[in-house]
Fold HYDIN protein.
Amino acid sequence: ADNHVVEATVVVKNPCKFPIEFYSLDFDEQYLKEEEILRMVVGSKYQKTFLMPPRAVGETLPPEVLEDYEAQKRLKAQQAELKSLAETEASTEAEATAMGKAAPACERAVTVYPEPRVNLTGNPISRAVMRHLGIDLSSERRKARQRKGIVVVVHGAPRAGKTEIAAALCHHYDAAYLSIDAVVTEAIADH
């Protein structure tokens, strides 16, 4: 097979007032690492395409995503360590039994290993988007969101009377009225 090397010179001019970043999907080490992180963090929770906050040239993935990735890595390491300990213990017990030195069943100590725990609240993509939009993630807001209750979503065609129905339900149940359009408009206006 003939191996021909083809070289080309590309001249890039930036007419914008802001920097532009280039990367190769196949060879850029940072891009490949970020793809690996996103695959681990996102898993099958999202569709193939999802929105994330924009980032400036040279920035990394959102901190929420990186923290979640590190937490998942720690969890996997803890699980691997526990599995290794259990296998070692089983192997040691099997050897002792083979040599006739096993303690009677009633005298055997049972080692209990705690389940590894990683505290992950909410999904990292949603947290990053909420932070970007300026939606309050304080503990008070979280506590308010965690209260148990009924959420009623009124959905329908335009001019079908959704707003009036929602207002009547709120009045009847003494509930809070939340308009998605209003929340998004307010968040955009704040930026």
